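User: Pentapeptide repeat-containing protein. Structure?
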Amino acid sequence: MGRVCTGQRDRSEGPEGQVTGIVSGGVQDGCMARRATGGAGGTGGAGVKGARRPEVRLPPLEPFGGGELEPDGDYDGLAFREADLAGQDGRGARFMDCALTGCALDETSLHHARLLDSVLTGIRGVGTDLAEATLRDVELVDARLGGVQLHGAVLERVWIRGGKIDYLNLRSARLRDVVFENCVLVEPDFGGARLDRVEFIDCALKGADLAGATLTDVDLRAAAALEIARGVDRLAGAVISTGQLLDLAPVLAAQMGIRVEE
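Assistant: Predicted structure:
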């Protein structure tokens, strides 16, 4: 197929679907506050449910003491600042109430890790392995990532804001209440993923793969650019603008077997 352009938090780690309501706040003395926006936030309007942003309130944080990550490690209330975590093995680790700022994550293994009530700012890396990880109540700001593996992961109440992510692998992942804002996604792979209440706000999607994906209340109207390389037939359950529909018309017609001739 051709390409076309167009408050308290829940610390119980309960089952998917038990959601609360993030609004950006400041960082002072290691403490970041968020205020809940409630149900129909962002670009959500009549007929589409808006994503509910996470609520993150970090307590005063202790600096990470250095050393390497440990498999199944438990990191609670820590500030990782400019830490070089490249190539380290943190498989199955749990990060609760943590701030990762300016950290290097090249080839870092965080397979099946859990990132909960945490803020990641300015992280960078190529080949970061977050396959089958859980991200719940997480804010990711100004990331520079390439080839990050999130296949089979669960993202719930996640706000990805700013930055650029190349070749994001979200195959068979589950995204619920996720907002992509002011970021660039180059060839993101949503193949076989489930997207429920996901918003793209001033976000450029370049060469997105939606093959086999299931979309429910996905709002693409405010996307800065929309390029779908595969899976345009999976847009049922998404909301697009009139202009985007016109851009998609040739591929939609081809998908339906309609010949368009003058």
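Residues 69-256 form a domain with the Pectate Lyase C-like fold (CATH 2.160.20.80). Confidence is low (pLDDT under 50) at residues 1-42.
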